[in-house]
TrEMBL record:
Membrane topology: Multi-pass membrane protein
Positions of transmembrane segments: 6-24, 55-74, 81-102, 114-139
Pfam families to which the protein is assigned, alphabetical: ThrE_2 (PF12821)
InterPro entries recorded: ThrE_2 (IPR024528), ThrE_Dicarb/AminoAcid_Exp (IPR050539)
Keywords: Cell inner membrane, Cell membrane, Membrane, Transmembrane, Transmembrane helix
GO biological process: succinate transport
GO cellular component: plasma membrane
Listed name of the protein: Threonine/serine exporter
Length: 157
């Protein structure tokens, strides 16, 4: 069961994703799927954290969800997947870790800056890996489908 804090986090993930979707002018019919993708990605993140896994795995699986969500909605609404992906991935950006990194640098706490900086970079790497993994799978699927169509049309000639 979700706590009140987590419900507020989901609402904020939805709102933040919606804000970026509006900022990027993605189109009225795509706003809700883009914002809902961000909230659901955060829900995946929270579920993985609740399962006792680390925030890196949670970020990766949240990003995998973002990739799948984006690819499916892109096909449904006939738009590029990035229309949905960029807005949906916003809640997974490690804003607090980036803030702590910069704050530690400004205050001269180099050990803390390194710790937070590494956490920030690793989280972003895992988010990038999650979205790239899904994109690669969909690209391979399309290439296989194209190859089959080409072979089938060659046989009919």
């Amino acid at each position: 069961m979700l706590t009140v804090t987590e419900l507020v986090q989901l609402l904020m993930a939805f709102t933040g994703s919606m804000g970026f979707a509006i900022l990027f002018h993605i189109g009225r019919k795509s706003l809700l799927p883009a914002a809902l993708g961000g909230a659901l990605a955060w829900l995946v993140y929270l579920a993985v954290i609740h399962a006792g896994k680390g925030y890196m795995i949670a970020s990766f699986l949240g990003a995998v969800f973002c990739g799948l969500w984006s690819e499916l909605w892109a096909r449904k609404l006939r738009q590029p997947a990035t229309v949905f992906l960029i807005s949906a991935v916003i809640p997974l950006i490690p804003g607090n870790a980036l803030y702590q990194t910069m704050n530690s640098l400004v205050t001269g706490e180099m050990h803390a800056a390194w710790k937070w900086g590494i956490a920030t970079v690793l989280t972003m790497v895992f988010v990038a890996m999650g979205t790239s993994f899904v994109a690669a799978v969909f690209i391979m699927k399309e290439r296989i489908s194209d190859k089959r169509r080409t072979q089938d049309s060659g046989r009919q000639s």
